[in-house]
Amino acid sequence: MVLAGPNSNQTHTCSPGRTVRSPECCKWFHILDDIQANLLENECGPESHESLRIIFHDAIGFSKTGLFNGSFAGGGADGSIMINADVELNYKENAGLDEMIYEQRDFAVKHSVSFGDFIHFAGAVGVSNCMGGPRLQFLAGRANISRPAPDYMIPAPFHSADQIFARMEDAGFSPEEVAQLMAAHSVGAQHLIDPTVNNAPLDSTPEDFDAQFFVETLLEGTEPVGNGTALGERSSPIPGEFRLQSDIVLARDIRSACEWQSFITDQDAMIEKFQRVMAKLSTLGQDTDKLTDCSEVIPVPSRVNRLATLPPGKSRGDVQAACSATPFPAIPTTPATKASFSMIQCCRGIITS
User: Fold this and answer.
1) Required cofactors, per record (predicted)?
2) In this predicted structure, what is the pLDDT of residue 117?
3) Active-site residue 159, yes or no?
4) Model pLDDT, residue 339
């Protein structure tokens, strides 16, 4: 990747308190200020969550073979979901992304940067707004030219573990790396799988990038948060929390279960591995020698000093541990409070039940 001059320690001052190794990165500070104020609102809210989701949906249109069902497999992290929005936003797995894609597109045009660069910048900035979040690598310099990725390349929430692992292996990811990528669901929500509870979160701490997701996906489900009939929806252990079938099978599959469970007591490892696998994802199909490292523009997230716990009313007996090599860790149970999870989410406007 491109650094500034023969000495990578050379720095350039963009504005007071803001330095970079390459002067090409200075413009991204202007974009940062604009999108934080006018797109992401400096919050770990729906806009930040969607921006992180778009990174995956853009980049996973890629195959190591270059082919998918005998045809062009997509260019990876190339911005095709925005460049070819008239095609790719019609794919079922991209449901709910249209509003954010077109909002982001306007900012990219305003600042004269490629759509691929903007997608991966906005996602990195968005997740940095989440308490405990990672500081993702950001490389700039993608071309603004791409062909549409084909349909059916994004794993679906109703897919089996075999289907998910096969698609991800074709893109170059191991089962352990799939588990690492799923940390994104710690600040995720469901979109149009069950429209009656659209934007229902996937764990009980949707504004924190923490390991709580990896605990709660191992709990036995009791009832669905929605109508319970949507393809890809499973019963949830917590009122107000949406349960994806894909998360259930990955948490319990022998190929990913131990990696999944390991994050419950080691959030630092969860963050480090997520940063590493996201760096791989966000450069699929790209020649990194032609890109410029502008990672120093990405804000440093706040830390989370809280261990994962069993939710109120849950015990070890509710856990469906699947890692045969290591016992499920001993973690405390959060005391019950008057405000239930569903009531908290109600008041934030996510769920109305």
Assistant:
1) Ca(2+)
2) 98
3) no
4) 45
